[in-house]
Amino acid sequence: MPTVRSLAAAALLGVLAPLALAAAAPAMAQDAADRRIVVLRLDGVVDPFIASYVKDEVAEAQDGGAAAILLTIDTPGGLDSSMRQIVQAILASDVPVICYVSPDGARAASAGTFVLLSCPVAAMAPATNAGAAHPVGLSGAIASEKATNDAAEFIVSLAERHGRNAEWAERAVRDSISASAEESLDLGVIDLVAGSTPDLLDAVDGSTVSVAEGREVTLDLGGAVLEDRSLGWGPGLLHDLLDPNLAFLFLYLGLALVIAELFVPGLVLGITGGVMLILAVVALGMLPVEIVGVVAILASLAFFALELKHPGLGLPTVAGITALVLGGLFLFDPSVPSARVSPFVIAPVALFAAGFFGIAIQAAIRMRRRPAISSPGAQALGRIGVVIRPVDPLGIVRVSAEEWTAESLRGPIPAGESVRVVSMQGLRLVVEPVDVEAGAEAAPGGPVAGPSGAGRAKGGVG
After folding, report:
1. Are 286 and 45 in contact (CB under 8 A)?
2. Are 373 and 349 in contact (CB under 8 A)?
C-alpha cells in the first residue's frame, strides 16, 4: 500500500516532468538547427556576383551555426580574383564545406578546379569532369609564365592541404589536363563519387575533416535539413548575362548599332549599342577570349559597312557573313569546356546582320538623302481665298480648292470676304482681307476660290 511520502513523490514527478521537457525543448530545437545544411550553387562563370554570394552565405552559415555547407559546382571557370575570394572564404570557414560537382554532365573547369580542391570534402557526380585550369588572358594566348607559376603553386597548396594529388593539380594548370569523376577518384584528386545529394551526405556523415586553422571537425549530418540559399534575382540576372552566347550577342550587336549610328544618327542606336558593348566587355573580361575571334568579328563589321556603299547584297555581304561565323566559332579558347558560342546563336546573328546592313540601314540612308517635301500649305502662301466660316478669331477659308483653318491678321473677317494668305502656323493659315480685284492681281495664275469650290479642312478648328 503506497505511503503518503510515495504519493507525494509521484505527484511532484508528474509536475516536474512536463517542466523538464519544456526546458529541454529549446536545446532540442537548437540541436536541430545545428544540423542545418546550407546549400549554395556555383553555376556559370565565376564572377564578382558569385564570389560575393558565396562569401556572404558562408559567413551567414557560420553565424547561424550550420552543420555544413553544400556547394554544388558547374562552371567553365572565370575571374582569378573572384575564384580566390571564394577559396579564401572556404579556407577560413569553421563550418565544413562539401563541394559537389553536380548534376551529371557538370564540370569544375579552370577556376572551378581551384574551388573544388579547396573544400574539406571534394565529391563529383558520375559523368562530370574537372581540370583544364590553365590561366588564359584576353588575347586567348597562354597567360604569362609568372601568372602560370603563381596559379600552379596556389593549386598545389590547396591539394596538399587536404592530402590530395598535388602532381595532377599542377598539371591541370600547366598542361590543361582534365579528368572524369572516376579518373579523379582513382588519381586521388577527390574524396568520393556520389550519384545524388542524399548518397553524398550519407557517405560523409560521421567523417572527420579539417577546417579553418587546421581544426578537426566531425560531420554530424543525421537528420539535417537542407536549406537552399539562392543568388537573388538582381545579382542572378547580371550573373546570367555573363554567358559565352550572350557575350557574343552583345559584342556583335553593340558594335553593329554603334556603327549604324554613324550612318543614321539619332542617338537611339548609339546608346543601345553602347550599353550592349559595356555588358560584352564585362563578360569577355571573365571568359577565355581568342584575339583571332575578335579580329574576325571586327572584319565582319568592316565588310558590312563597305556594303553600305553599294546597293543590294553583294560580295562584301558574303565576306561579312563568313567573317562573322568564323569570329563566333573562334571567339573563345576551345580548350575550356563549354566556353564556346553555339552555332544556333551564330546563324541567326549572321542573318540579322545581313538584313540589318544590307536592307534596313541602306533604306534608312536613302530616306535621309531624299530632298525634303514641302508642306502643302506652303503652296498657298500669297494666294487669294474666300472665307467659308467667319474668321473671328479662327474660321475656315478656301484656297486653291482646299479648305483650311485660318486665323485673321487684322480683326474679324465675315463669310464671303476675299482674303490673302500671309503665313502659316503649323497647319493653320494666317490671312488678311483684300478685295477680289486686288487679290486677283496679287496672285497671277492663282485661281480665286469661290464658295462652290470643293475641298476639305486641313486641321481641325481649334
Report:
1. yes
2. no
